[in-house]
Design goal:
By secondary structure, the chain is mainly alpha-helical. The chain has helices at residues 9-24, 26-33, 73-81, 84-96; strands at residues 50-53, 68-71. The protein has one domain (9-94): DNA Binding (I), subunit A (Orthogonal Bundle), CATH 1.10.30.50. The structure holds zinc ion. InterPro entries: HNH_5, HNH_nuc, NA-targeting_endonuclease.
């Protein structure tokens, strides 16, 4: 990623730890049980859904329930390879289709 904000390493570590805990929680299991990607709404097996931070941790996002959504592998890898602006465009296209 090439858009680092100045997020302290300690905060990143703490939020990644919280994300790990969140992944084990009943709340998360309920989220992925529906087998639906938050972004493209594609139905995928729960075990193929990944926990995605809507606002990435490196951009100051937190591992809160409001910031963590289930995403399919395709959306997840797109989100990581696209620039934030390109990702916005991708979401817009999804919304229109
Ligand atoms: Zn998706």
């Amino acid at each position: 990623m090439d858009f680092f904000l100045d997020v302290p390493e300690e905060q990143l570590r703490r939020e990644r730890e919280k994300a790990r805990e969140l992944r084990k929680s009943q709340w998360w299991k309920n989220r992925i049980a529906a087998g639906c990607c938050h972004y493209c709404q594609t139905q995928v097996p729960p075990k193929e859904l990944t926990l995605d931070h809507v606002v990435p941790l490196v951009r100051g996002g937190r591992s809160t329930r409001g910031n963590c959504v289930p995403a399919c592998k395709e959306c997840n890898s797109k989100k990581q390879s696209l620039l934030p602006m390109e990702w916005e465009e991708y979401l817009e296209k999804l919304g229109k289709s």
